[in-house]
Design a protein that fits this description.
The protein is 29% helix and 24% strand. Helix 9 links the parallel strand 10 and strand 11. The chain is elongated. It starts with a strand and ends with a strand.
Length: 383
Amino acid sequence: MEKLFAVSSPGLESFTAIELDRLGLLNNNVESSPPSLESGGVEFFGNEQAIYQANLHLRTASRVLVRLGDFHAAAFSELRRYAQRLTWHRFIHPGQNVDVRVTCHKSRLYHSSAVAREVIKAINATLSKPVITIKSNEDQAGEFPQLIVVRLMNDHCTISIDSSGHLLHRRGYRLASAKAPLRETLAAGLLFASGWDSVSPLIDPFCGSGTIAIEAAMFALQIPPGKSRQFAFMDWPGFQPELWSATLNPSKLEPKGSRTEVKINASDRDEGAIKIAICNAQRAGVAQHIDFSSRSVSDIQPEGKGWLITNPPYGIRINQNKDLRNLYAQFGKILRSKCQGWNFSILCNDMILLRQLQLPLDAHLSLVNGGIPVRVARGTVPE
């Protein structure tokens, strides 16, 4: 069993733990080491297939790391000695491109560049050809170097191997986006936080490039978010193509039961955004399950009862000088008149704007959107 760590954005850790539990991956833990939910992710245990499953299925995680080594390191000689003992050959080819990311806190080894150099020396001492160090770029498509994560805290060193490659929010369907796009992992977290049952109608009246609606459709139809992308583990020397094929078995990718429909309405007043959203949904294979339309929020036509889940504009994200209080006041008026009895979850960074809705807010969940602290405001529109 490998010690693994599913990295999550702040606020999403509990949802990642729920996902791991549903996948049966929290039951793999050895008796003496129960699963650990901590700030920044969830620690769990698993074999090679667990690594494949976590990358394929997790909707709210950013990366899946393999904990390669944990040891005390108060001097460079100590760091190099223990690092050389690690099984680098299982994950890195001789001469491969690698990126070593180091963070140091309250440790005698505090110079991150020097620590990275020592780790590289340790790797090269175990391989027949030196690795090539390059800096990875999360925003660039294409080949991604093998990421090695080194963390020093109170003279304790943890070295991890990234199994994901590009961040897991890059599902492969969003090649274009409207302004201020929402990360797919955060959209999935918003759906978890809302309590949406994946059966009731769902409306997003500020859909932008369609991320919430697309993630909702994929969730409802049980389409794995990682089915159309590549992962770092596919380049490992020990990669098992047959095991990956079994994990990616088409029969396991079909929606369970007879579920083939879900009622999702996504709209935006920006016609260009709707065109982008439709293209993204087509690439995700869910366009036929989402009713996209270009219209103002005042023109939404909810039927029955369901969930309204949305990411409306807020100042820092779009235009810091623009006063959005009137928009939120009008939005609240529309909800009170047209969506009585509907559940709502709204992502926003400003309580002043949320108060303009004049709706009872049951709970708040703190998240981070593109480095901006935001809240998920939840509630039910009074009948």
